[in-house]
DNA sequence: AATCTATTGTCTCAATTTGTGACAATATTA
DNA sequence: TAATATTGTCACAAATTGAGACAATAGATT
């Protein structure tokens, strides 16, 4: 979430901690498990609060690098596919009591104490596409869990994080034909059916098999490999990979 | 531009001035003069620098409202069509010497003095669509001009403002069929040819007249009115307006 | 008043893309 | 050997788009 990891329990101002005040990011990290589109959610067991993984920008680091750093911390992956989708700056999202609750429960704050994380934040939303099977998510300093949730079965999220997920999903849907979305959500080699399932999971609707296959092959972005034999009692599908 | 209007010459910190530190916005304000797509550019005559109109977010004001406030100050218009397109947070865009030059030349700063505007800013880019003929642009506190420039004849812009314009334009192009762009750039009543010219100006390419007319009419978003007689020696076109 | 010119509104037909179903070609099971 | 589920591909209909033709017409020219 926006108001997430604290580098030091004792830094009371952003400047002391080396971060830019008032600026956060939140990331909607998509993964595809073969059937369902999922996202990573941080949990705070003492508070029963859930949030998107997020963080802050160091004084001498770019916004993009800050997000990459946070994603690396959560997933261990570098070179993650990232897309910025919206920046959230309403007044309604400024609820310091929520952050305070988390920090108190984790011992990062004493009651009544001031802290820069309790100030107002504007948060930049990014979505990431990662290969579901390569990742063992790790919680950050403030949270105690970081787990996959199907996009249709999310827990109640703090602040405006649910709106963030919706906006990320809308953006992803709008980009599905522009940005080779499958290349980041699928393993190196995949069947046409798997690719179709990625589309269906993102769009939330069924796609006609023959039309999909014709269109995708028509783009000439796929290379065909050997067939995949899975022991199923039917014709084995070809495997594909993205060219280049 | 990002580092634009100063509420008081004497506030040395963001907090004293009532603004959120490190956060700015820049606006790409599009207008259509009947032929060309133009945007508003602020000029600083003493420095020969040019920039997008921008500003800062007050502590108790939403990001959107801050942008609306700035647009009202520049144009006198309320209820402007606004769309956020990207947030810029690279390290390269942090060049305090540029801001310092402007502030020194305008007497907003003494040499060697500290000022919160000289700190690093992350800027949220918005584009606006306004009716060109309704507006008499006004400069802000730091600039001494605010004028229309055709998008293909922009002066050299400071920092990453040229990149901002490109990104705004890309976003506008992507939204052209989703968001009823013409409704905000055209007068209440307009001809099909004018509408087509808006499309051509935004897309930067010629459009086939008959196909365009067929498609637009097929959307059933236009109401047809009386014909427009302009004294030209040919058939007079119908006027249209957007339904609702 | 008749003719000419530029532009508009609409239509037609070809070209392309998409929707829909059919069907043969398999891997495995029964 | 036959049955079953799925895949790859084709064929044809339906819809959309490209490209041009053409009549209508407001004013200018004669």
Biggest sheet details of chain A: 7 strands, mixed
Q: What is the CA-based Rg of chain A, rounded?
A: 20 Å
The low-pLDDT segments of chain A are 1-8
According to DSSP, the number of beta strands of chain A is 10
Strand content of chain A: 25-35%
What oligomeric assembly is this protein in?
Answer: homodimer
Count of runs of 4 or more consecutive helical residues of chain A: 7
Q: Characterize the overall form of chain A.
A: elongated
List the helices and strands of chain A in order. Answer: HEEEEHEHEEHHEHHEE
Helix and strand composition category of chain A: alpha+beta
Compute the average pLDDT of chain A.
91
| Fraction in helix of chain A | 25-40%
Most extensive interface: pair and counts? A-B, 23 and 23 residues
Distance between the termini of chain A: 35 Å
């Amino acid at each position: 979430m926006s108001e997430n990891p604290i580098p030091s329990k004792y830094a009371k101002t952003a400047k002391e901690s080396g971060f830019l005040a008032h600026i956060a990011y939140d990331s909607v990290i998509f993964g595809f498990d073969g059937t369902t589109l999922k996202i990573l959610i941080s949990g705070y067991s003492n508070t029963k609060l859930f949030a998107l993984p997020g963080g802050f920008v160091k004084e001498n680091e770019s916004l993009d690098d800050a997000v990459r750093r946070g994603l690396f911390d959560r997933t261990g992956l570098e070179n993650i596919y990232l897309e910025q989708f919206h920046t959230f700056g309403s007044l309604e999202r400024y609820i310091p009591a929520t952050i305070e609750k988390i920090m108190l429960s984790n011992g990062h704050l004493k009651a009544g104490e001031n802290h820069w994380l309790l100030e107002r934040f504007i948060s930049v939303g990014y979505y990431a596409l990662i290969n579901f099977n390569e990742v063992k998510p790790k919680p950050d300093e403030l949270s105690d869990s970081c787990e996959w949730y199907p996009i249709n079965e999310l827990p109640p999220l703090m602040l405006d994080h649910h709106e963030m997920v919706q906006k990320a999903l809308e953006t992803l849907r709008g980009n599905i034909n522009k940005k080779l979305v499958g290349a980041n959500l699928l393993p190196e080699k995949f069947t046409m059916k798997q690719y179709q399932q990625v589309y269906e999971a993102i769009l939330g609707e069924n796609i006609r098999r023959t039309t999909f296959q014709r269109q995708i092959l028509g783009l000439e972005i796929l290379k065909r490999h050997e067939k995949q034999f899975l022991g199923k009692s039917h014709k084995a599908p070809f495997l594909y990979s993205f060219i280049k």
